[in-house]
């Protein structure tokens, strides 16, 4: 991905006195084997595209942080200036991409600026798209406005849905040209998370035989992010089990909401079970278990229905990386790590069942539920019924009425009616109250998700210099369970959206 973009000349900015000064830089204390310190490369004449008040609140910043004269936040989060105490760096990681060992990858276009202490714990702040690093390989270190809007909006949409994710504090854009399939312009997303460590960080030190560094990284992670593992008889196996359990819960969230990540390489898997690295992701429109959202994924390795197995495969890669940490004979060590992965299966299966029951408005657990849920999904798949709207409209079913707007989503109306009879009988078992259940179902089945075409409309306007739709969509996506602001926010994908393709190009 060569770029003909010239390096940006930073707009000089004097260090603002009132900017947050409580930087921790705990990762920096690990030492140079883990990162390269280097300043971000800025963008000329940056503009704000959007910022997330929810993130600022998490950081404990005032609501006007982004426009305060004395903070110069636009310059800082466009890579043109730094606040005192920041220690920008790119970290090194490796990973398996599409099932194949890819060797060293690393933060090819991400700069960790440091950590901010908050009452809820420290949060790392990272710029994505602020120029090349020693890990950029053939890349230009940049991110285009199109993919940055998708990452910004989806990070905050996931948070709104209550799904674990890295957050997006703000998004800035510039006229700096960036070459992809065509010439586009640069943007920088500022992400925040308690930790951006990935499975790939651990794989890196295991595969390069840097076992002492591997142990220091694992100890660092346990100390700061998984302290309960310290007391376990085998802290590293306990850590693996923790990651397996959190990952299972995350994937259950994804499957329940119809989210397809698109590039579940091990370097995109968070050690904290967060949704990480938004690339060619997609929310399901018409339900298709085999849906492939990444145009570059010809084999469908990361198809929707495969995500649970792929996550488990990735956890095995992480277990492999943990091998050098384990004392004693290899065989016993391997066995202990495999055992630590076991809870993934039940956590995922039970977690998904629990979420599906809630989506159907069921409050008790009956043996027949699994079959009822499977048949509902089969029915949806047979009609390619809209995933989000099928669940949302199901909430309007009453003892006596099949709502027309639900029927409209299905081709085989008889099969739907037959299933609804079973559903009603099941609701009677727990004496479900229609109105109360409808309200509960609307609280777990979103009205609005970031459909590809919604993002596309915001992107096209932003590419013309109008960021108002990105900002409006952010507000709507932060409250996805509310009735939508506009009918078009919940509408099914229009015909023109069928041909939209998202790939790894970003
Ligand atoms: P991704 O497919 O986005 O998860 O990226 C895989 C690897 O490629 C990561 O190490 C990224 O940092 C790196 N990468 C992706 N795009 C670029 C780019 N434009 N410049 C430099 N590195 C990149
Ligand atoms: Mg990545």
Protein architecture, described:
The chain contains 17 helices and 12 strands. It is an alpha+beta fold and 506 residues long. The chain folds into 3 domains: 3-196, no CATH class; 200-352, no CATH class; 362-442, no CATH class. Helix content is 40%, strand content 12%. The protein is globular, with a radius of gyration of 23 Å. The model is unreliable at 1-13 (pLDDT under 50). The longest helix is centred in the middle third of the chain and has 23 residues, at 235-257. The N and C termini lie close together (10 Å). Strand 4 and strand 5 (100-104) form a beta hairpin. Strands 2, 6, 7, 8, 9 and 10 form a 6-stranded antiparallel beta sheet that branches. Magnesium ion (MG) is lined by residues 267-268, 277.
Ions and ligands: adenosine monophosphate, magnesium ion
Q: Find the count of extended strands (DSSP E, 2+ residues).
A: 12
Please summarize the sheet with the most strands: 6 strands, antiparallel
- Series of secondary-structure elements, N-terminal to C-terminal: EEHHEEEEEEHEEHHHEEHHHHHHHHHHH
- Count of the separate structural domains: 3
Q: What low-confidence regions span 5 or more consecutive residues with pLDDT below 50?
A: 1-13
